[in-house]
């Protein structure tokens, strides 16, 4: 970091924004294989929170990679930088008082640890959307597993690139065994207490 760049303080603090919103702000991070159900669940949890009047936003892998991170590939270095930028972006959203939901494969434990460190442990909930490669490949929502099998996509998670299961996630939902509604209920139960105003914590 350039030592001539100095942190500036804002007049309005994150806690003042949280109090005005009447809820806490944090990052709800969904990790799992492509096709495991991250986007589906992040979006539906957002709908539930939005309907309760909370300020929310979803950051999603495909969309961020088509914009902010269009220059990055799927090598370990590309993924690391992708996730670092998303964590920094999420940090801004948290500071703005927004409940932020992020759906990214984020396959490596060390990259997920880095995200937690960037946004702060108290602001971070990790949700592991568990599903086997076989189940995700059977769904093949976007036809990417077929392309990976055909060698058209290199470094494809679960086929030709690793996925490390989270060591200590806050929530595990199993999209092979649970319905979408069941998973949403489990997630909502876990995040409810964390969404209270800071003064109520
Ligand atoms: N090689 C390779 N491996 C995995 N995924 C691939 C790849 N190439 C493209 N895609 C598509 O990109 C989406 C994953 O991007 P992410 O930013 O979430 O990946 S990562 O967290 O940096 O690992 C992922 O979206 P999801 O299916 O929603 O997970 C895919 O649609
Ligand atoms: N229990 C479940 N939870 C989440 N998604 C499920 C579940 N059962 C089936 N699905 C389906 O699996 C697919 C998951 O796709 P998506 O949400 O795009 O995954 P990802 O974002 O992890 O790539 C969707 O078509 C969704 O309807």
UniProtKB/TrEMBL annotation:
EC numbers on record: 2.7.1.25
Keywords attached to this entry: Kinase, Transferase
Top-rank EC class of the record's enzyme: transferase
The protein, known as: Adenylyl-sulfate kinase
The organism of origin for this protein: Mesonia oceanica
């Amino acid at each position: 970091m350039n030592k001539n760049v100095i942190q500036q303080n804002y007049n309005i603090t994150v806690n003042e924004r949280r109090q005005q919103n009447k809820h806490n702000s944090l990052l709800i991070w969904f990790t799992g294989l492509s096709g495991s159900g991250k986007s589906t669940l992040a979006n539906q949890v957002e709908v539930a929170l939005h309907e309760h009047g909370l300020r929310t936003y979803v950051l999603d892998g495909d969309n961020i990679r088509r914009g902010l991170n269009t220059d990055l590939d799927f090598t370990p270095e590309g993924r690391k930088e992708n996730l670092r930028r998303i964590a920094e972006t999420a940090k801004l959203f948290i500071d703005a008082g927004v409940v932020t939901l992020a759906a990214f494969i984020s396959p490596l434990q060390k990259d997920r640890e880095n995200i937690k460190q960037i946004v702060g442990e108290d602001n971070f909930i990790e949700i592991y959307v568990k599903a086997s490669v076989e189940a995700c490949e059977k769904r093949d929502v976007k036809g990417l597993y077929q392309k990976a099998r055909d060698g058209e996509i290199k470094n494809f998670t679960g086929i030709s690139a690793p996925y490390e299961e989270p060591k200590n996630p806050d929530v595990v939902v199993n999209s092979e065994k649970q319905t979408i509604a069941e998973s949403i209920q489990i997630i909502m139960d876990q995040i409810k207490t964390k969404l209270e105003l800071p003064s109520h914590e």
